[in-house]
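Q: Could you write out the predicted structure for this multi-component system? I'm mainly interested in how the pieces pack against one another.
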Amino acid sequence: MKKLLSLLLLATTLVQAVPPEESVIQIVVFSQQPDWDEPWNNRPVSRSSGTGFAIEGNRIMTNAHVVKWAKQILVRRYQDPQPFQARVAYIGHDCDLAILEVDEPAFFDYLEPLPLGELPKVRSEVVTYGYPAGGEQISYTSGVVSRIELQNYTHPGNRRLLAAQTDAAINPGNSGGPVIQDGKVVGVAFQGIPGLENTGFFIAPPVFRHFLTDVEDGHYDGFPQAGIRMAPLQNPAQRSFLGVPPSFEGARIDTLYSDSAKEHLQKDDVLLKVGDYPVGLDGSILFQGNQLHAGLAFSSAQNGESVPLLLWRQGRQVEVNLPVFVNKDDAAAGNLYELPRYYVYAGMVFTPLTKNYLSTLGQNWSATADTELLYELFYRRKSDPENTRTEAVMLASILAHPVNANMRIRGRVMVDRINGVRIDRLEDVVRAFEDAEENYHVIDFEGSYGFETLNRGQAEATTRSILNTYGIVQDRRL
Amino acid sequence: MKRFASLLLLGLLLVPAAQSHAAPSPWAQSVVQIDINRHNYNYFQPWSRRVAASQKFGIVVGPRQIVTTANWLYNHTLLRLQKGGRGQWHTGRITWIDYHANLALLTVDENEFWEGLSPVTLADEIPNQGPAELVRWNSGRLEVRKLEINRFQIRKGQLTFVDMLHLELDSEIDSVGRAEAITVDDKVIALTISQARNKCIAIPSFFIKSVLAAQASGDYRGMGFFNFFWQQSENPGTLDYLSLDGEKRGVIITRIPKLPGDENTLKPRDILLEIDGFQIDIVGDYADPDYGPLMLENLATRKHWAGDEIPMRIWRDGREQTLVYKLPKADFDKELIPTALYDVPPEYVMAGGLVFQPMTVPYLKSWGADWQRRAPVRLIHYKGQPPTEDRPRLVVLSTVLPDPYNIGYQSYRFLVVDQINGYRISRIEELQEAFANPEGAYHVIEFEQGEPVERIILDAARLDSATQRVMLRYGLTEASVINDPFPQK
């Protein structure tokens, strides 16, 4: 008992040796976002600030959204006016986390890494550290963990991962800052919900630990997905139809999306266990005292790992190891953080249909965009996979020139075919134009937009001068 | 005093003259008010019925015959007419109605109503510009107001998908669009259908006259339309690409939706040069002998009805060719998602709390005026799709009325049904046979690929008792309403 007390005391002494705020970093970012409507252009440079904290290995952890599109990252230590230049070593847009490195070794002198903790209990107290609202002095806010569940991560826009809600104030600038309990990091502050009072969210330890494990091999893969959709199995008729014994719970596998799921699973399999977690009738698992969606158990694996499953299949229990992978196709519906791809030919600007492209329509883009474009981007992959293109391509705009001045279409339409070639991705556009042999290019559009033609000789002769007129250095970024 | 007496005398003499000037307008004997009570259905709760009331106008066009627009007459429960702008209302009835043409004939059985009424003359020709007058009753007074004829234009009919000729007038008058008569001199030139800002839209008299004449002689076969999409040929390169000889002319066919019974032979990339003897220019207009340049769609309704054969000249395979285009009949039942339903209650089948409904535009309009933005994208997508032989229509699981029987399914809604118990479901009436043939002890309901859930199961033995219980709990008088056959108007 005496020994135990000593250990506790030591632990207390250790974590109190350096106050956490001394490991908290202020981050100032100068960033430049591309313009998806004119993809060779960038928007004006903007300044923003966020927070980070030192972790083992002379690294700084922060949010991906704090350093997105960064041209310059400056980091400052606690009460130190000296800024240091930092760079992104790893960035995980799906989990909104990033690791920064500072080339100047002196930066880490006297900078203690913060120890990483475990998932805090609901109703336990936490303190956030950060530099909200662009302030120069560190700010502390305390609160309790209000709930823990899978949340929509707004930075990627299409991922649900584990997060904790707290009533401690989390404001712009807090992003990337540590949430501390008993001297350890139990969360990374990352988002709030406009209009809701006393609700801030932080990224939970299983997520940032997964991220750190992922990058150990020097490469970030991301969070894998099961590639399935589950449906609740609460209806007695549904259970009886599948012959599930009354003593069993589990959720029904309704749809298989990924190749791995199609290979290893069957529709109407009943998922009884994921790893060590029994699955409830509503598709949830009990994770450290929290009833959470079973998708959590799949995303806990690393890319390419197998997740052991216990299934009820056609009247008996079956064990299956399901390899899970990061779903790259999902990028079609989420925000993108790579420079936009494009191709300009005879003043016609082609670019992939993406969420970022649609967002150029304005803040209310989801209400104003052509519903067929929304369907193409968000629904066709699931409802009509046989006819889904790898990448839908838009004729985004037309740079006016006599060669294209008579075209009725002036942009914002989706391309179906060019010179008879079905456009399945942007590279097909280039190939269709460059391989053409007829006198006229023929561009067919999706929907009721008809088609356009262009004299090939005139088009080829004018492309370079159009690029010069509009100040476009490269005709393509593929 | 003598002078005063003279003034009085003058006054007495003047009074009859002034009364003579204010004599009732002849329109007072021809314009009547119509009061309509009708069902106003709520497609989100298809079993509930609310009432709506509207007032509009009609004009006497013949013995015991009044013509008005068809708008607001659908789903009516009571129709009453009043002459002279005040006094007794008389119960009326519809003798003929066509929602595509947006015209209806009404009558009143009481002889007394017709006393003092006289028919108007519908103009054969309408001036292209100049003043006109709007005539209507307003609080017991005949209101005659000035408007200005602006232009003729082709636009979709108010109650249909058919493009047809309308008259646009400039108007500063409030609340126009209730079938008010527009007159020039002593003739009616149009009936109003709508107003937006200071533009008033009306149905021209010559169209009304031709429909009524065809209806009277039994020749009216319904409105026809051109079942193809076309694009303008303003890009000269496109006509060169299609090897058109001679001057630039015509428009290019781009798409021909599949329509049951339409055996016309137009093809995409045909250049449409001439319709019914009229040359088509590169923007899609023809030179109307009476009204100048008009969009080619008018040639489907100009002196033609459904089934008529119209000669066309096209450019195909490097030469001019002639073909005959048989006008398909405008028919909501041939659409995958019908544009409109008139004079029928919303159909539904409620089974164990699961509410199934046909997918129709009136259903989608339940999302409000901005329904094309607010309704689920998955559903709106179907609006632009053509029907197919194996999927002529669509049925959706629109909502679930919670009950212990359907526990676990309460949140499902707006799902397009694919099959029930192995029966492919396109029309609501197909649910009856499907539910009559369960798969063993279960009803297996499958939804289209990509819907938020693809299959749900119901206990077949308990379905009827659950349906009865849900009816009681949620106040449904009928478990299903199925209109048979599809209304043809």
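A: Regarding packing and overall arrangement: The radius of gyration of chain A is 26 Å.
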